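Postdoc handover notes: sequence design on the structure in folder B. Input tokens:
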């Protein structure tokens, strides 16, 4: 995944300063991707202007781009919100993720260097640290970074772009369920992926990725189901 992660507007590299509209888009993207905006939450231009401290024009452009990517939905009456996932949405995402991300893992295993594997291991160690500290935000950030770094080595921009768009759709829901589930009780599929990368074994990498995708999406499915049951009982 090619988009920068968590690059603060005030601390961006001045030697390669990005246009304001691009910085605003990345900030909004991160808010959705890491669940700072919850499923079903309304998103307003004025609210983002105040939160990000920028003008209306770049905010409008960022919202337009996010709608085109399916990360935000237009609901009429000029209302925009973060989409909520239905069971069928999750089924479709599982199918897409298995098809796309397993192939990305397969390709990455053939291309990745020792330095690339070491970088993946560093990110995974940071993820484990966040998990132990019950730091949901950084857990989500490092989980995304692990996948993003892996897919970068696949050298498959079309497949990566599709994967990015799907991640934007389930990111907010992942944040919701992370607070409900004890991820430490689940098998660590990232370690399996790392072992496959060390072996440069594409088939093993694809299998490990398939298991990681299935495990993660089932957590989302069960977590959202529990959320619905809780609301129904109120």
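Designed sequence:
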């Amino acid at each position: 995944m090619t988009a920068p992660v968590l690059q603060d507007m005030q601390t961006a590299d001045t030697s390669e300063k990005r246009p304001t509209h691009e910085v605003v888009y990345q900030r909004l993207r991160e808010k959705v991707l890491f669940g700072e905006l919850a499923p079903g939450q309304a998103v307003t231009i004025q609210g983002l202007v105040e939160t990000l401290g920028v003008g209306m024009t770049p905010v409008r452009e960022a919202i337009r781009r996010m709608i085109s990517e399916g990360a935000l939905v237009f609901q009429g009456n000029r209302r925009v919100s973060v989409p909520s996932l239905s069971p069928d949405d999750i089924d479709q995402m599982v199918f897409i993720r298995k098809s796309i991300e397993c192939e990305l893992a397969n390709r990455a295993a053939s291309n990745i260097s020792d330095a690339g594997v070491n970088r993946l291991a560093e990110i995974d160690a940071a993820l484990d640290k966040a998990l132990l500290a019950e730091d949901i935000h950084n857990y989500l950030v490092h989980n995304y970074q692990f996948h993003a770094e892996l897919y970068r080595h696949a050298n498959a921009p079309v497949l990566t772009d599709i994967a990015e768009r799907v991640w934007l759709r389930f990111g907010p829901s992942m944040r919701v369920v992370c607070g409900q589930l004890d991820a430490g009780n689940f098998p660590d599929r990232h370690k399996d992926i790392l072992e496959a990368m060390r072996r440069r074994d594409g088939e093993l990498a694809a299998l490990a990725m398939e298991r990681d995708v299935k495990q993660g999406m089932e957590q989302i499915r069960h977590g959202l189901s529990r959320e619905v049951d809780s609301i129904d009982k109120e």
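Context for whoever picks this up: Strands lie at 42-43, 73-74, 80-81. Don't rerun without checking with the PI first.
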